[in-house]
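ping. complex inputs:
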Amino acid sequence: MPTIEVDYADFERMLGIELHKDLEKLNDILAFVKGEAKPFDEEEGVISVEIKDTNRPDIWNIEGLARALRGFLGVEKGLRRYTVGKPLAEIYVDSRLRDIRPYIGCSIVKNVKLTDTIIRGFMHLQDKLDQSYGRNRRRTSIGLYDFSLITTPLHYTVTKPTEISFVPLGFEEKLNLKEILERHPKGIEYGYIVSKYPVYPILLDSEKKVLSFPPIINSNDLGRVTEKTRHILVEVTGTMHETVLNTLKIVTLSLIDRGGKAYSAIVHYPHENLEVVTPKLETWFMNLKVGYVNKVLGLQLTARQIAELLGKAGFGVEKIGKGQVTVRVPCYRIDVMHPIDLVEDMAIAYGYNNIKPLWRKLPTTGGVKLEEGSFNVARELMVGMGFQEVLTYTLTNPETLFKKMNCRKERIVEIVNPKVQTLTCLRNWLLPSLMEFLSNNLHIEYPQKIFELGTVMLLDEKRETKTKDEERLAGVIVHANASFSEIKSVLDAFFTNFGLEWRIKEAKHPSFIEGRVGTAIVNGRNVGIMGEIHPKVLEAWNFENPAVAFELNMDRIVKIKQTRRA
Amino acid sequence: MIELRKHERKTLLAIERLGGKASVERIINESGLTDAAVMRAVLTLQERKVVKIHKEKQTIVKLNEEGKFHARKCLPERRLINALKKFGEKAPLKKTVEKAGLEKQFIPIALGWVQKKKWALLNTKTNMLQILGKLEEGKDEKLLKLLGEKEQATVEELSPELQAAVQVLKRRKLLEIEEKTRRVIEITNAGWTAIKKGIKVTTDVTQLTPELVISGKWRKVKLQKYNIRAPVAKTWPGKKHPYLQFLDEVKEKLVTLGFKEMVGPIVETSFFNFDALYTPQDHPAREIFGIYLVKYPKYGNLDAYEHIVEKVKKTHEDGWKTGSTGWRYKYSVKEARRLVLRGHGTCLSVRTLLSKDLEIPGRYFSIVRCYRPEVVDKTHLTEFNQVEGIVVDENLTLRDLLGVLEKFAIEIAGADEVKFRPDYFPFTEPSVELSAYKKGYGWIEFGGSGIFRPEVTMPLGIKVPVIAWGLGIDRLFMMKAGIDDIRYIFTQNLDWIKRKGVV
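pong. complex structure:
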């Protein structure tokens, strides 16, 4: 979810209405574009707006937000037209970029009046687009340049890492590309995108002056935009042509919104015999059936009403036909993929709170999952025997699961990207979670009796997810005189009340004291383990009192119970 | 004349013998009663205003290991000065240290303190140590000696001088200090009067025994009146976890509303977590900051869904037959098989829509554990429960969606008012956020929802609208439980869970 910083005064100016810093009102307005403002900093005069829609990079800056909102607010209606003037530059693309970063798009915007606020806004937009829509510059990256310092045509080509040197943005000395990757902060951050290739992308003008080293850094000489810059060259490179063109569109439009006049550039891909004129600001058409709209919204709108709502949402209406409206979709609405996207915007323009909710009587029967009833009986029994139910994470670490339980490590479900070193895998048994829980409560009054009915995850090659979730029931009793007979008595009561006959069989388990541990057998099947916790384990968890515990496979127990019943 | 029971009289007289004021421990010793009996008696005596219970702070000091060492050997500066005395008035530092036999770690300490105490001076040029003045035993040494002999002392009972010494030794990190509260019982003026006037012992019976009942003797004895207001020991019943109990109730309400529970695995393929929900394969939510990727095992098996995967692939690439433009990129089936820890309960809805048991019309829900690589703080958990579901039927519209949300707000959150706002999910359009208002609680965001996009339903072979919803029940629980930190849901604080009543 992108969060954008917006200069409040500038925003009001672009919006064309006054909000008197009323946060509630601001949020009512931002709701139209799925935005929400955080309480703002009066001194700085900056508001943070969170945009929920990750698919609308066109509203990730003041210009775009205002463009989208003016229709809803009635300041402006219908489609905003954007035009592009004749080509002012040509760019030649080297075929050797094909597997590295093959696409480029350019536009020239003349007579833009930049202020410090506006420049900061553009840097912010560039950042958001690079990060989110450009997937951290892997997919696309943007560069802005002072057009008056550049001689065309441009050459988007490749070079060896040490062949060309230039002064990167923010530096004073010349560095070659290899040095930039090693020393410049942006080189360190994004270097991995190109460092695997023998040659790196480079953008040069006809005098071989460096514009930038895409997607890493601009030149400090040509690629620095200040309040004095009047004519701007926008350039976007990337791996996906459509995304490159979309990104170029968004930046160019915002510059036009700031009073600039846009001109195109011709991109030559000689090896493919291809010429592409950028930016592409054409609108396109989509047919919307009146019946479809009403079927989705549950309303009875006429074609005319639909046209009206579309106008509020910033769409053009080309034709109102019989049962159908032909919609002109603005070039920047790259999120529109399906007529349903238009329908939602109409519903927003109509106002969700103006639509009457309907609760239909449907002949459905509610119900919980099959095992739920038995699981609840198990929990009730544990509670009845004086155990406190606890809730723990299924994420844990091997030390908790094995080392502290005096067990050998087993294969378990592990995570590539743990957020903390204590949560690196999923538990394959439940008891360690309870031991950990108790170790955090050593000072609490004894006896302590806790239980949990929880999921553990086991490996299972046969299943489609290669894993199996299993419900377990585990309980622990801790006090000065905790003994095997106490826990056995608990299990005896448990099985008896569960309506199952059980017996106990001697067992060995490194977490329990030898000769004081047994498996529970029901219907000839092993359904769990119980016993006195080994002093080694007590020590590992800093227990000063003896503990007795059990862990049962509830899935198996419930299954046995169900087959018995059948 | 005052009437007391046997134990009470004994206790009172024991206090009298102890000078009218004594700690519980001393009363126990003096009276020969058990501690429980003394405590009970003291409470009744207090109730009858013959004694007063004072709580006194008691600070117990003991020597720590290093302190004990010095108690045996004397403080390092004393050892140094003693060695110096053997040389006369003056000697080289090195020689003195050797003579004193000081351990290496204590040399700088000894040197510091002899000078601080003005016992000796070190000439830094000549490195000679010279005795300066009187070498009297300091208060710190007195305390060290005392603690060396008596193991521990109560600070409040020490002389002012030794109390000051406690601070010195504390700063030198030679002490272990423990604070305790001690109860001291004192006879009141009324108590002294009562003792003077004499005490009559009553023969009231405290405990009704089986013997008294069987023999009928209970008729002859007088059953003592209890102080029924006296505090009693706490009982800790076995209880369900407050949050799980709350979830049980939510579940029950959903079932009453006609929703059926769905099931599905925790470790899930990206296909069910993302692809089938029209989330493109390069979406940031699929990167390491958005989802837990499974290291081992790495890939699942989608053979059973071959035809569905094919349709989803086409839908992502060019929209297939859905009327959509699609995401327009090259879809990878291998990426679809990538295993993750499910990031939302919506995977279960996809599985349900694919199930041969799917009923139309149908209402479904799930309450399951979900995972996201978030830094855990007041408002985020990395592992959490989600309540989600779907409604499937012909002719469902946005009005039905709002109807479902309103129903939840009223039935589950007990809301007085609802409000809808536009929302965003990659897999629903239109999407709606639900806010619920409840008197005394204010507005809370209570849910997100939408109608599944055609790009989601059509590849799954679903030809009717599907409403998908999720409820923010954690916020509701937190409000009801009066907590403002989401981490309390998984708290490891047993005391809190035991004390927390039904929410």
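Chain B touches chain A through 105 residues (CB under 8 Å).
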